[in-house]
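Review form for a predicted model. The reviewer records the input and the model, then writes brief findings.
Reviewer: anonymous (R2)
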Amino acid sequence: MMASIEEKVEEHFKKVLDDLHIRHFGKTETINSSITKALKEADSKSGGSGNNFPDIQLLLQNKNRRDIPVMIEAKGTKGKLEKLTNDGNIEVKSNGKNPNRAVQQFAVNGALHYGHAILDEGTYSEVMIVGINGTTMVDGKVSDPEIAAYYVSKKNDSIPKKLEGFDFVQMKESNIDSFYMELDKLSLTAEERERLKRDKEEQLEQSIKDIHQRIYDDATIRTLLSTNDKLYFFCGLIMAGLTTEGVKPLELASFSSNDDADDNDGRIILMRTKSFLNKKKCPKDKIDMVLNYLKPVFEKRDLWKPVNGESIIKSVFKQIKIDVLPLLESNIHLDFTGKILNSLNDWVSIENDKLNDVVLTPRFVTNLMARITRTDMDSFVWDTCMGSSGFLVSAMEIMIDDANRRIKDNEHREDKVQHIKQNQLLGIEILGNIYILAVLNMILMGDGSSQIICGDSHKEAPKYMRSHTFPANVFLLNPPYSAPGKGLIFVDEALSRMETGYGAVLIQENAGSGQGDVYAKRIMKKNTLVASVHMPADLFNGKSSVQTAIYLFKVNRSHEDDDVVTFIDFSEDGYSRQNRKKSTQKVNLRNTDHALERYDEVAAICLGKKPKTDYYTEANGLVIRDTVTLDGNDWTFNQHKKIDTTPTEEDFKKTVADYLTWKVSAILKGEVTADV
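Model under review:
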């Protein structure tokens, strides 16, 4: 094995920087107190405590004092520039006995470790990482220097973006402005954002399952907490731990684990939760309602009393602070509370869900429905059976993305985003334990809880509409299928209160084939059925076996008997599903056949646009365009599927072949005589 020439590589690139008149700092030099603090307080590359010493450090500055730290790590052995995963990402956590192997042994990976430390400290929101390497010396010089550079920023959720063809000359003072412009162009693609979201959801789901497994395995906690109590326990620890402006983050050292009824860890959680809700400007009645749910849980002595010097509350909070809070405080919006609910559903049924109606809609379906209802930054979106607010989360994401894309002025854009969160979303949920999840979900989206109501939507919706200005033009719903008309009663009521726009409902399919009571026909009198989408039979992945469909309506235009409806057989959506209790969606929900493209295609078909793919066409029989009656009893795909019984030439050939096969076999067996 050749000896490393790491020191020579370091010297080589320091000379390059000197020749370009770029100020650089060595391992033990200090750029400023923030960077020193970040490197000192972060875990070392070996994973334990200890300082961090990048081989070379820079601090880029332009005329506007936009400062970008640069962390440079050197290696001097063949193949040690960078270690990538199979997906092409920089490997941070390695498999095997040493999870820090890549960070320790590869230049770019080590530089990324330092870069994350800088971002985590909080002073800087962007950093550059550079790996340098070389393997051969010729005449006392490195003959094969190599370099790889990445830009890492919080706006890209700390995902490294590679600078192709990077050269240190780009960092010269005379080139710095154009270099910064190049950095600003490095943003995540839609595909990268979706992959990032899936990865974070996977991490989040696994963390929640691990915590819940721990609670389930601990007989003391398992018998102490009911299902609802577990929901409130999770939510309270999360709200208490989230970073809030003007309030010092809750640290493990904040917990005293006192054995005192008035001064204990449960009181700390309740106090911090109240502070959190106040800082989020939640109304007093909402704060009181949330605290009334949380108090009976966090006042349980067995949760706050110390055992070997530590309470259960402190112990579980430690796990949440390490594994869950960093994911929730990223720039990626996740349906966190839905993950909690699904995790609990894996073990027990929700206590006040007597009719098994609490089934959460998958994110890719809520996103599809928000798209086909033409949601944009000016939409007013509501859901009268909102559950943990999955539909509103998807709609809000689309609305904010649209605002970011269309509004160029920063101040105007920020005002619009706040208006979307505070005024353009309305949700109603009757179950109190699910309602608290919705409140937390919308707060995690950056407020958004202003118009989240707990109550019976049959009563609360008209009352709210009378006392508030909410020009609803997008309605999204997955109703309880045990309600009248399989849930169509909610659709009928909501659409009747809208003057324009679109509504989409995910519902038991036979609600549209005669099982919708009077509501299906009533809906047709005032609204137009635009599309009917037959969904996969295993959509809810073991949590429900109901065959569902999405029905899309145009509001306030009566359906006419010659209106053409688009029917789509979406039973094959590109996902393969399993129902392993202890597995996450990485195992239970796998994209095995272009699922993202398939959902895009169905959205395009429903919107009347030209699809980029052709998985679903009239030619292959998966799309049918046909009329329906005005009775509301023929909305399903299969009712319009025409089966061609005309025999083809291939049918004739097969029949003849089958006959000859039988005839020959029968002759050989002596069962019949051959015709001469």
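Findings: Residues 239 and 273 are 5 Å apart (CA to CA).
Further findings: Residues 647-676 form one domain.
Recommendation: see findings above.
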